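Data card: per-record layout.
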Amino acid sequence: MIPAIALIVGLIIGLVLDPSVPVWMQPYLPIAVIAALDAVFGAIRAVLDGIFDDKVFVISFLSNVVVAALIVFIGDQLGVGSQLSTGVVVVLGIRIFSNVASIRRHLFHA
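The structure for this 110-residue chain is written out next.
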């Protein structure tokens, strides 16, 4: 539950401070957010499974964000940024929905 609380606190801070995103970073931010959400939902699932490790969470969170942004950056350099962005969103979306399904099974025993 700590990752979920941290996510909520981060969202509130972001809404209150209303930070501006530099133009060069704008194409990568949505992908980074989806990668971060994948790590958060994976952490919630790990907590419910009783196997949560804070080191694994931090490494997963940072590496997901960096790798997803790097894939989109390389795609932009090759001229296929939108296709790679779609691929990253699809893969991470599948992982997020899989984790949410597992969380739902834990919570509702179904």
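Known properties of this structure: The mean pLDDT is 90. Residues 22-108 form one domain.

See the next section for split statistics.
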